[in-house]
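Extended Data, panel c. Modelled sequence:
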Amino acid sequence: MSAIVIVGGCVGYMAGGLIWAPPPRDQRIATLFEEVCVRQAIGEDLPEPPYRKLVSVRFLEGTRMWVDPVAASFLEMSDARCEISTHVPNALSLADAETLAARIEPIVLDSFPDLAFDPAVTLGEGTTSRGWMRGEAMTPERRGVVFFAYPEMEDGAGSSLTLFYSDPPG
């Protein structure tokens, strides 16, 4: 009888993992970007943490940071920006970075129609880079969304998806 209970428990645990498996990292990061960063930028109220199982790691004046254990990433918000980043040993692979770039593009275009794709936003070969910006480069008016992933930088591998606010969110 105990063997049946043990086997049944193991089968149930494995089946539950298939049914309620965490989303792919790129999907999770895109969801956090849309539900936290974009909502903050357009002035919507955010749910109280711990939102989606985020773990608070820092709260300084004007800056808040959480760890997302599901996507092995960090979410950082300040008055000027919202950023989701990954770092070694949990940096995105090049394939995951390309998938994330494809996922965030429609979010950016739908949420911020005033931003234009900027082909000058790049880090070079072996990286994934996208930028949707407005305003002249190197000016205070420069705002938008940038995504960089640099998985081949060995000890410095990582990624950052950053939304720079045009005005501090209210």
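Residues 11 and 17 are 10 Å apart (CA to CA). This feature is highlighted in the accompanying rendering.
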